[in-house]
Amino acid sequence: MSASTMVLPLRRPNGMRVLDLCCGAGGLSMGYYLAGFDVTGIDIHPMPNYPFAFHQADALEYLDRIITTGEVEEYELIHASWPCQNKARVTAWRGSRDDHPDLITPGKRLMQASGRPWALENVPEAAWDGTLRADYLLCGTQFGLNVRRHRAFETSWAGGGDLLPPCWHHKGLLAFQHKGERAYADAMGCTWMNKTEARQAVPPAYTEWIADQYLTHEAEAAA
Ligand SMILES: C[S@@+](CC[C@H](N)C(=O)[O-])C[C@H]1O[C@@H](n2cnc3c(N)ncnc32)[C@H](O)[C@@H]1O
Q1: Which of 155, 150, 154 is nearest to 188 (CA)?
Q2: To the nearest whole number, what is the mean pLDDT of the chain?
Q3: What is the rounded distance in angstroms from the CA atom of residue 54 to the CA atom of residue 46?
Q4: 27 C-alpha to center of ligand 1: Å?
Q5: In sequence order, what are the residues at sequence separation of 6 or more whose Cβ sits closer than 8 angstroms to the Cβ of residue 223?
Q6: Would you state the pLDDT for residue 94?
Q7: Which of 42, 59, 71, 125 has minimal Cβ neighbours within 10 Å of its Cβ?
Q8: Cβ of residue 46 lying under 6 Å from some atom of ligand 1
Q9: Contact present, 202 and 28 (Cβ < 8 Å)
């Protein structure tokens, strides 16, 4: 379904805004939206199926610019899914890590310099080599989704909060090799994406939960 015709699910707005850097077709944006946030996405490629406000731009340049102008203050939270090809196991996609620069390190530096709360997401390998700290390590099975898809999140509030059930890797679960299939996109909850977009996407359930952790942390810090 294209962005222009998609009917967004009902949610209760919370009056806050998230900037989603490297948003793709909006898997993680959708989670923030469902949690109540208004979302603006930035991606270097056109994303005609992205369901929210969108700017095509280099995310590092964009963030650097809005920090300089002060526009960054309009966002309660900054999220980034810097490309994972520099970290992911080579067998997981057809390419070489060396052809892709590490954007996590300069991206995190900018997010820290923004002065805003932030969350960044990547493959678990990025935590194994210390590029990010896995404050949360999430899998689809923890949210009742029929997909095995692990993602590490580092947050400016250093994690904590609710406990999730452990992963449940039962037989019949859709794993990486099914990524090109329509069923995989649907199982992640990314029904508006085409199969190519869904290959890169992360289930909305992850950031709906991360948003909740952020709101809980802010409420506790304000108390
Ligand atoms: C893993 S995908 C993001 C998936 C997204 N979080 C989701 O759940 O649907 C990474 C995205 O980063 C984008 N990207 C790569 N380099 C970029 C850059 N320098 N600036 C902005 N976007 C970039 C790619 O086009 C791709 O859409």
Answers
A1: 150
A2: 91
A3: 9
A4: 11
A5: none
A6: 52
A7: 71
A8: no
A9: yes
Find out whether the beta carbon of 100 lies less than 6 Å from any atom of ligand 1. no
Q: What is the DSSP letter of 204?
A: H
pLDDT tens by residue, 64-106:
999 999 999 999 999 999 997 766 664 554 556 666 789 999 9
Rounded to an integer, what distance in angstroms lies between the CA atom of residue 11 and that of residue 59?
Answer: 27
**Identity of the residue numbered 151:** R
Across the chain, how many H-helices and E-strands are there? 7, 7
Q: Which atom of ligand 1 approaches the CA of 193 most closely?
A: 9
The sign of the CA dihedral 223, 113, 131, 103 is positive
What is the pTM assigned to this prediction?
A: 0.94
CB 155 within 8 A of CB 213: yes
Q: Are strands 118-122 and 77-80 parallel, antiparallel or unpaired?
A: parallel
Q: What would be the CATH architecture of the domain defined by 17-222?
A: 3-Layer(aba) Sandwich (3.40)
Pairing of strands 53-56, 38-43: parallel
Residues 6 or more apart from 5 whose CB is under 8 A from it? Answer: none
- Joined together, the tokens standing for residue 84 give 């994972």
Given a contact cutoff of 8 angstroms between Cβ atoms, the answer to whether 137 and 97 are in contact is no
Whether ligand 1 lies within 6 angstroms of the CB of 45 is answered as: yes
* Domain extent listing, the chain: 17-222
Concatenating the DSSP letter of every residue in 142-193 gives GGT-SB---EEEEETT---S---PPP---TT-B-GGGTTSHHHHHHHT-TTS
Q: Give the position of tokens 């850097």.
A: 21
